[in-house]
């Protein structure tokens, strides 16, 4: 034993204040589980289940929502969202191109627009739209309530889409433009044929998230003062809830949003991975 | 006779960095000229000034007698006659190989779809990637991508071709395929200005070799002289490093 090299000797692990790290971790985890169980038990114990069920999950009230929930409310929500998205897509791309333009005033206009409409609450924009006829007598947004809703969503969405497109356009390597130009394409032709198609491909995932955001913001149409045929999910749920003095229709509207938004969220994640 | 390329007193600054310090040189129609030199010597910038991807700070550049540094020149029209091949290929990733070769024919030369496709297939065949027409660039090897890029330039029927280190981004075993295509082009009489580190290619194929260092042309002559019997110490030092990298 004596001639064994000292360096090979096993040394005891260094000990701090008594407890090993593994033991500390185990205790910490046990505490977290205990807290969780306590919270769940308390919730079950104190919640007024019959009252909750009566107010948020009353089946006969939920039935009243059908079929208008889908044929009118969901349909209109999708009309507002798709319309607003189309406007955002076109104007967002235009704003992004202006933002990257070599003409300074174009850049300024785009920056001012983007900063204002990203910085304001969407609700404020919708409230302003309701006052448009006061400011411009005789003026009416084409398309009635649809037009107003799409305008509101488009104004806000364009600002966000502009930033998304700007990132996409800047992510296209400079060599792509150089290759196009050296083949004799003009700068506009190179942009349309080579740069923009690649930028659009790159921004599809964030664009899907933007569509989900617009779908949710379409609930603000509620503030436009809407007649029954233009009603979307949020107002539809709210109106029925008032009528029956019961929150179930709002829950139903919420679930209907989720039926659309959750799959879209997964789609965006999958597109991002590709 | 009009020079294919005529560069006079060319200067280029990037900020305070003077990359080209007065370049004078010409390329005659049908000539193959290789530009060699250490990195940072300005050879790629010189090449990029010939189709105005870089704007010269001072000096004049003529291509087939047309002054391209004249502010009133239609640069798109000039570029149509100059093929350019990049180190990084720069194929359009959202198009197939065939579409890459067709698109500028259709959009710039206004050729019909049928004609553009025939020309594209001919040129892809010529560079040895005829079987890969439908592949996207990402599905091709570097050597195949670079040959598609050459076909894309050739499909425009250029009068001269610029090559900017066309084999520098390739795995060593793929370099040969690209050089073979370039040799074939040279034999057909294409006017070529090639920035390269391939000394074998320069020695065998070039009519003239230009050695650049520090933004100036140090030596300009036939390969037997510039590579075989360099007159300047800077050229000799560079060639020693390139030909015998391990001393």
From TrEMBL, chain A:
Q: Where is this region: Disordered?
A: 1-23
Classification via SUPFAM superfamilies: MetI-like
Residue span(s) of domain ABC transmembrane type-1: 74-268
Q: Where in the cell is it found?
A: Cell membrane
Q: Which Pfam families match?
A: BPD_transp_1
Q: Which domain of life is it from?
A: Bacteria
What stretches pass through the bilayer? 30-47, 78-98, 110-134, 146-165, 250-269
Give the record's membrane topology. Multi-pass membrane protein
Entry keywords, A to Z: Amino-acid transport, Cell membrane, Membrane, Transmembrane, Transmembrane helix, Transport
Name the PANTHER family for this protein.
GLUTAMINE TRANSPORT SYSTEM PERMEASE PROTEIN GLNP, MEMBRANE COMPONENT OF AMINO ACID ABC TRANSPORTER
Protein family per UniProt: Belongs to the binding-protein-dependent transport system permease family. HisMQ subfamily.
**Protein name stated in the entry:** Amino acid ABC transporter permease
**What species was this sequence derived from?**
Nonomuraea longicatena
What taxonomic classification does the UniProt entry list for its organism?
A: Bacteria, Bacillati, Actinomycetota, Actinomycetes, Streptosporangiales
TrEMBL record, chain B:
Which stretches make up the ABC transporter domain?
A: 5-239
Does the record bear Manganese in its keywords?
no
Keyword list (alphabetical) reads: Amino-acid transport, ATP-binding, Cell membrane, Membrane, Nucleotide-binding, Transport
Q: Name one GO molecular function term.
A: ATP binding
Protein name per the record: Amino acid ABC transporter ATP-binding protein
Tell me yes or no: is RNA-binding among this UniProt entry's keywords.
no
Family, as annotated:
Belongs to the ABC transporter superfamily.
- PROSITE patterns in the cross-refs: ABC_TRANSPORTER_1, ABC_TRANSPORTER_2
Membrane topology summary = Peripheral membrane protein
Places the protein is found: Cell membrane
One Pfam family per UniProt: ABC_tran
